[in-house]
TrEMBL record:
This is ABC transporter ATP-binding protein. Pfam families: ABC_tran. It comes from the Bacteria. The keyword ATP-binding applies. It comes from Streptomyces cavernicola. InterPro entries: AAA+_ATPase, ABC_transporter-like_ATP-bd, ABC_Transporter_VariousFunc, P-loop_NTPase. Residues 1-221 form the ABC transporter domain.
Amino acid sequence: MRLTKVGRRYAPGGPWVLRGVDLDVPAGALLRISGANGSGKSTLLRLLAGIDAPSEGRIHGRPRTAYVPERFPSALPFTAIGYLTHLGRVHGLRGPVADARARAWLERFGADGHAGTQLRELSKGTSQKVAVAQALLAEPELLILDEAWTGLDTAARAELDLAVGELTSTGATAVYVDHDPRRLAGAVDAAYRVDGAALVPDTATSSEPAPQVTVLARGRAGVSLPGGLPEGTHAELDAAGSARLTVPAAHSDTLLRTLLHADPPWHIRAVREPGRAVEGPQPSSAAQELTS
């Protein structure tokens, strides 16, 4: 997708919210959008999602898109599972497939106990998990996240980080806004800032280094590492088949899946996350889940 000289204002003769925006949105990229409150970030995301149309300029290309809005419409007359299954079918999934994916994402975000709860009865945090799940179950080519982490508990925020990494590692694109400058900092391919209706490169960097995960694995002697390792992976492999791989934390589950699903599969000896190390043949809950 590409935006060429795109502008948006909400009334003829009114002020420009965005103007002269040129932006490439390449496949497989993770793009961060920042800016002050009311600067036009959400307007830009709505343009990318196809929910809004530019007042001037052109948007070229329209990948299959899923969008998590800043405010989730929780008053809709659905249960959580009913809403997700309905949205899955809107995205072109068959009913049983939509239902299975919906339940899998609810479980992954720790909200499976609320599958039968009416949306209007959900807490803000659980509503946000449903909002995120409806976008991810579609396996979109372009994922748009507008403050999607807000309201999520710590475990669900980490799960969303991982899900974004998994999605971009398959060649899909994600564009996001988040108030935390450290969010996915180690995985971002390009960052932009909305400033005075213009979109400019954001060269500011977080004062804290992006968290890294180190995986120690063993394969067969003389066997190369599998293809498809997530972007940003640093790998050291010796002749005996032992490997040390370091990857941004947002891509760690993708790395584990790639190793465990290789033919032949790799044996995970340890996963060392920021602040802790877990040794042994089943190093983390993620790896245990992948091998079950």
